[in-house]
Design brief:
By secondary structure, the protein is an alpha+beta fold. Helix content is about 45%, strand content about 20%. Strands 3-2-1-4-5-6 form a six-stranded antiparallel β-sheet. Helix 1 crosses helix 2 and helix 6 packs antiparallel against helix 7. The longest helix is centred in the first third of the chain and has 21 residues. The two termini are about 40 Å apart.
């Protein structure tokens, strides 16, 4: 293994260990952690040491991808967002899943309709949800995306674009996401909602499927079910 590659991996491993150390009150510094790693690796054969570094780096990368973040009560002004499409009683719907450190933090849903929702190009699968403060002090959420040419388009006032009833249910789901409820429990919570309106029940199923995308292992098991939806983001 090249020295530069090995050093970069060691830095990433040390950064992950530093994060754990800071939460447990340890006084270990990044430099000290790297030094300890180097000393441990010297006790191994060079090939075994390289394999161990690679394996550890891959393991930590996989773990960090699905790690539940700490509770963040103050929402950042903007969040990265995945665009997820699904069917609701033969109507085409879109879910905008705001992400914090790669983990679902909020969700907005509405019709793919120019008058009663929003229309997005089929190629748009990602964007940003931006929180804005209006002159009167009220707040709104805008969705911004880039087209194929790199030009930015902003859809203002998501709450005004979507049905108030669906918006309120989405606010409830976003609330439990923001306070760190494990995704498996959020999906169960959504699934347990007893709603009289059949249209809302169908919408609820679409939201469940959108969130399951972020649970390791679950998405792969439901590929056959996902084929039933019109979903660019493979939910």
């Amino acid at each position: 293994m090249q020295i530069e590659t090995r050093n970069e991996m060691l830095k990433r491993i040390a950064a992950e260990l530093m994060s754990v150390a800071s939460k447990t009150g340890s006084d270990l510094t990044g430099e000290r952690i790297v030094s300890l790693l180097e000393q441990s690796l010297k006790a191994l054969q060079p090939d075994d040491a390289d394999k161990l570094v690679q394996l550890t780096d891959l393991t930590l990368a996989g773990a960090s991808q699905y790690r539940r973040p700490d509770v963040t009560e103050v929402r950042p002004q903007q969040l990265e967002c995945d665009v997820v499409r699904f069917q609701n009683n033969k109507e085409k719907w879109v879910a905008l899943v705001g992400l914090l450190d790669g983990y679902p933090y909020e969700i907005f849903t509405g019709l793919q309709d120019d008058e009663e929702g929003i229309i997005l190009p089929k190629t748009v699968t990602k964007g940003k949800i931006i929180k804005q403060v209006n002159p009167d002090g009220s707040k709104r959420y805008d969705f911004q995306f880039e087209n194929k040419r790199g030009y930015k388009t902003t859809v203002e006032g998501l709450s005004e674009k979507f049905n108030p009833e669906y918006w309120n249910y989405a606010k409830l789901i976003s609330g439990v996401l923001r306070y760190g409820m494990p995704l498996e429990h959020v999906v169960r919570l959504v699934g347990s909602l007893s709603l009289k309106d059949e249209s809302i029940n169908t919408w609820k199923t679409g939201v469940e499927r959108a969130l399951k995308k972020y649970i390791p292992g679950v998405h792969e098991e439901e590929d056959s079910d996902a084929a039933k939806t019109d979903n660019v983001a493979d939910v």
